[in-house]
Amino acid sequence: MRSLTPLTLLLSAAMNAQTTVTVTTAPANADQVWYSLQNGTVRTAPLVEWDLGFEIAGFTASILVNTAKGIAVFKAPYAVGAWNSLDTAGMTNSWTQVYDSDTSWSYGALNQELTSDEFDLGWGVYNLVTHTVAGDSLFVVHLANGDWKKLRIDGLAANTYTFTWADLDGSNETTGSLNKANYADKNFGYFSLENNMALDREPLTTDWDLLFTKYTAFIPQAYPVAGVLQNRNVTCLRVAGMDPALAEWTGGYYDPHINTIGYDWKSFNMQTFQYDIATDRCYFVKDGSDQVWKLIFTDYGGSATGDITFTQELISAAGIDEAGAPAASIAVYPDPVEGGTTNLFIDAPGTHADLRVLDASGRVMIARPLDGALAMRTLPLDVQTLSPGAYIAQVQGGGYRVHSRFIVR
Fold this sequence. Notes:
Distance between the termini: 34 Å
Mean pLDDT: 90
Radius of gyration: 22 Å
Shape: globular
Number of strands: 30
């Protein structure tokens, strides 16, 4: 662990001051707001302007769908070759309606329904030889304007996503593209199917920590909520069931799940028709610079204003990570796990590491070595021996140790 430097001790005298902040997402939560804990609001953009979001960095080629806007997307039970003869009979009753993950940016709606093939990305299959992705899936999209479209992602090659959409009868077929180079150092590039237009909406990944937005959560069914999502390089410790003034920021698990703050710090009171704010919880957020901030939510104006009010306080300028550790990351997906099998995505240096799966009490439930190149790799993870509950996957290699939390149902 890092030790406190004289500079950190000097800074600590100024860390006790709380700042009250109000971020507005506008009436009806019409705006998305990217927020930096260090610098405040970085960018605001209308939620309704985009339909698809294409992952720029990362190795899952995630494609988001703006279901919070009112879009519905169904994955067709046919291969991409059925494009010209797509039969939508029984679609809303028997086809799978897909949504973005609310725990990871890496698994958008078009990445769902994975097979056992470790190179399956949902909408397409990764080619290990050509390092391209070929689309193999068909989707039907009900746009927010009421139009029904069929959609296929043709592929990802030469740094460019290509995709095709048309009316269900095949008319008005249009092909679009999005070049990742135009969105360098950002998480996603966006596209409007309604307007046939690529959109540059996000700040640089390094410039923001939290996204205040309307999104689809699972409680347990899909439902639109207003809340806070973390950037992919941000982790968060949620402390609940106690006076926030007594909460400790050390010793707990800093969760990379992007909905660790989420929406449930508030609840709607059916007697007062106002929102009640949970007073027994706070959030410690470790930003991309390893600074730790304490957040306490104090008010929500509802859809009338979209105002979210909280206090923020810099707790540690030193951070909690091990100094000098090489960059490494893992993710478990699908999450939650159903059926006893899932995948471990790992991007780490070296050719050997050790995997352990721990239960909520810290007991080691699974232990196995990981051998071979570990950069940008997908491995099957058998969890059939695990009872339903929460678990932590831990990978430790040369100079690093990384974690990913997951649920078994």
